[in-house]
Amino acid sequence: MAIPVIDFSKLEGKERAETLARIANGCQEWGFFQLVNHGIPVELLERVKKVCSECYRLRAEGFKASKPVQLLNKLVEEEGDAADAERLDNVDWEDVFLLQDDNEWPANPPEFRETMKEYREELRKLAEKVMEVMDENLGFEKGSIRNSFSGNGEHQPFFGTKVSHYPPCPRLEMVNGLRAHTDAGGVILLFQDDQVGGLQILKDGQWIDVQPVANAIVINTGDQIEVLSNGRYKSVWHRVLTTSDGNRRSIASFYNPSLKATIAPGTNKDGSATALYPKYVFGDYMDVYVKQKFLAKEPRFAAVRAV
């Protein structure tokens, strides 16, 4: 099985209905799909790859002194090559930092800030286009998801970009690249490494590779889209495996509700669906999520129902 790859440009032509259906299938049956011809210039994507790889090169020594490396080294010393060696189940083999509109960004390489600012603006626009497609496919009024995320324009939705690298790992069996989880928020847009794989999703009880596709943007739906869609678009478990060769680059942008936004199942134009999820403030959900990120998601909805 392969993750659906969808030509986003065909929304504008005579294949619009077919493309809408393919996106609906990607949301409903997979929770992940890849967009090509999405409108983001290849030249910009090449610059993003360059500045992020250079940024990691400047940070690499810091990763060697990081907690995951120290813990793995200690475990290897204690366990040796024993067949029943323990795993590090509470850390990720990941170098990561977050970009937001109002936080401190790396100063080097010098082109980093300008390039990533331009990239984030393109991704923000793409996220809003994808949400409008979801509105249409779900039978919502245009702009419904975006309005839910902003409290009908009263608050600013969260838009953050997580820049990650997963360096080569000497003991693949002992540590995860990124532990299995679902994403808390709304729409996630990933520009993943087109050479080094490792991202997998859980589908029908099997872990499936998200195959690298050059210059594609991988879309996945978070927990809040599951709620707004009343369960039609489920958030999906995913993970990153460690690799012994290659340094996986992963640039994930998150278009999430404002912490003050109220989230509840959306209403179809015919108003017929019965709500299967609670109504809550997104900040309350995040209070639960940060403690339970790597656990089953259903108790998170139950916990926030009681808030």
Task: Describe, in plain words, how this protein is organized in 3D.
With 307 residues, the protein is an alpha+beta fold. It has one domain: B-lactam Antibiotic, Isopenicillin N Synthase, Chain (Jelly Rolls). It is 36% helix and 22% strand. It is built from eight helices and 15 strands. The strands form four sheets. The protein has a seven-stranded mixed sheet. A four-stranded antiparallel sheet has the order 7-12-9-10, with no helix packed on it. A two-stranded parallel sheet has the order 3-6. Helix 1 packs across helix 4 (112-138), helix 2 crosses helix 4 and helix 7 (282-292) crosses helix 8 (298-305). The mean pLDDT is 93.
Q: What brief labels describe this structure?
A:
Plant_2OG-oxidoreductases; IPNS-like_FE2OG_OXY; vitamin c; 4-stranded antiparallel beta sheet; Jelly Rolls; EC 1.14.17.4; L-ascorbic acid binding; alpha+beta; 307 residues; single chain; 36% helix; globular; 22% strand
Topology record:
Layout: E1 5-7, H1 16-30, E2 32-36, H2 42-64, H3 67-79, E3 88-92, E4 95-99, H4 112-138, H5 144-150, E5 158-166, E6 175-176, E7 178-181, E8 187-192, E9 199-203, E10 206-209, E11 217-221, H6 223-228, E12 238-240, E13 248-256, E14 262-263, E15 280-281, H7 282-292, H8 298-305
Helix pairs in contact: 1-4, 2-4, 7-8
Write a concise synopsis of the structure shown:
The chain has 307 residues and is an alpha+beta fold. The chain has helices spanning 16-30, 42-64, 67-79, 112-138, 144-150, 223-228, 282-292, 298-305, and strands at 5-7, 32-36, 88-92, 95-99, 158-166, 175-176, 178-181, 187-192, 199-203, 206-209, 217-221, 238-240, 248-256, 262-263, 280-281.
